[in-house]
Amino acid sequence: MSGRLAVIGLGPGNAGQVTPEAIRAVAEARFFYGYKPYIDRLDLRPDQQAIASDNREELARAREAIEKAMKGESVAVVSGGDAGVFAMAAAVCEAIEAGPPEWRDIDLTVVPGITAMLAVAARIGAPLGHDFCAVSLSDNLKPWDLIELRLLAAAGAGFVIALYNPISKSRPWQLGRAFEGLSAVLPGTTPVIFGRAAGRPDERIRIVPLAEARADMADMATCVIIGSPETRTIPRDGKPPLVYTPRSATGPSR
Amino acid sequence: MSGRLAVIGLGPGNAGQVTPEAIRAVAEARFFYGYKPYIDRLDLRPDQQAIASDNREELARAREAIEKAMKGESVAVVSGGDAGVFAMAAAVCEAIEAGPPEWRDIDLTVVPGITAMLAVAARIGAPLGHDFCAVSLSDNLKPWDLIELRLLAAAGAGFVIALYNPISKSRPWQLGRAFEGLSAVLPGTTPVIFGRAAGRPDERIRIVPLAEARADMADMATCVIIGSPETRTIPRDGKPPLVYTPRSATGPSR
Fold first, then answer.
1. Which residue in A160, B168, B190, B240 is deepest, having the highest Cβ count within 10 Å?
2. Which residues pair with A50 in a beta bridge?
């Protein structure tokens, strides 16, 4: 008899942005798998046990969690943000597809959460107010050429772009290259938002024009949002500007 | 002296997906502006007052809410899902930019929420597990040509596509046209998810291959997710299939 596996999105990192559904799912599980910083956010009871692992071992972690659940246990895999956006829900599905047929019987629940781009956007106005896309800048699992192609296609078609996984120690040059490529198709005045740790005590939100955007303005905890040519900035006295993308757009070739 | 204006995302529509932050923001406001179905979700105290309006009057509603807040009142504008995704936060920013200069002094907060595509994705696996975009199919405020251009650019570059506002009485043909256009660039086997009222009692989630997708499978409460060529379907005995987009992708021209 198989147990239960919940893949839970814990939101950007403050308690006010964890849904009641996520809190309930955490309360109902006994074994917790996840990247250590997310596991550390949990306030577990003595009868609950955490198995933290490194960021790079998503598939192994997914398999381990599924095996535990298949033994009849109640298991949770936790992600920051939304569990389904560049996070553990896809890894769990991959493991199920590649695993033994009985794994498909598992009682699987995915609990959505506030994903980083939504939290960052809310702090600055409404940059995602119209058509947008989300791109992971990590070339660990896809070729850089494909990332570049997607960025240029999206910018050329007028999408606002949210970049996840913009930079890390092992991927130092990709974000700079992305800004370079985008500068060829977007005005230098396009607003770029560096949203670090949105909603957490160490939050830092910074807006610069694309022409001045530099890779060292981001770190691993940053979600970068690049406006479209329609995106507007409203200056305010004594307050950070508002950045928003209007609900209307005027034509294919702007 | 200006009051406060909170633009609040109430999530997809079940209490388990409303954040504590949104609940707090609702508790702190006295006047509520919004589309009636969202206003109806609130359980207001006798000292709180709701001003419901029609769906088409976003800008007028935003102005009215700002004017009320400028009189020193504590005002909330409520949206379903996330307030910043095809919703009221952009309309409020538009109104501020076009309004008198003193409107820029307003104490504005945007409270993010679980947006529809995240709720739908969670019910079916992880279709948004890799690069994706969100497109509003409404041509009330942008030309249809631009929408078509964006859909084709996104599909051609391998993005999963979430469609918001797919259909309405006054926009009956757009979704069918979108499926037609996408069929020219995507395999007929590409999974299409019709996610209606995800997480609510009247939820209905349906998966069909693109070749069989029809506009009448959606209504106003539906978020449609169209897979990429990488998106996979895992059949399961006695359960709906899982649909997910792997974390890896293999090349620009797949």
1. A160
2. A32
Query: Measured on CA atoms in the order B69, A191, B83, B63, is the torsion positive or negative?
Result: positive
Q: What is the mean pLDDT of each run of 10 residues along chain A (254 residues)?
A: 90 97 98 95 97 82 96 97 97 98 97 98 98 97 96 98 97 97 98 95 96 97 97 96 94 55
ipTM higher than 0.95?
yes
Q: What is the pLDDT of residues B27-44, one digit of tens each?
A: 999 999 999 999 999 999
- Strand pairing partners for A195? A205, A223
A195–B contact, CB cutoff 8 A = no
CA atoms within 13 A on the CB side of A160: 32
Distance CA B112, CA B115 (A): 9
Query: Is-above-0.95 flag for pTM?
Result: yes
Q: Do A251 and B146 touch (CB under 8 A)?
A: yes
Put simply, whether A24 touches B (Cβ < 8 Å) is yes
| Contact criterion met (CB < 8 Å) for A97 and B234 | yes
Contacts of residue A178, Cβ cutoff 8 Å, sequence gap at least 6: A137, A147, A148, A151, A163, A166
Q: In the sheet that B31-35 helps form, which strands lie side by side, from edge to edge?
A: B49-53, B31-35, B74-79, B4-9, B107-111
- pLDDT tens sequence across A169-210: 999 999 999 999 999 999 999 999 999 999 899 999 999 999
A150, B157 in Cβ contact below 8 A?
yes
Q: Which residue of B has its CA nearest to A237?
A: B105
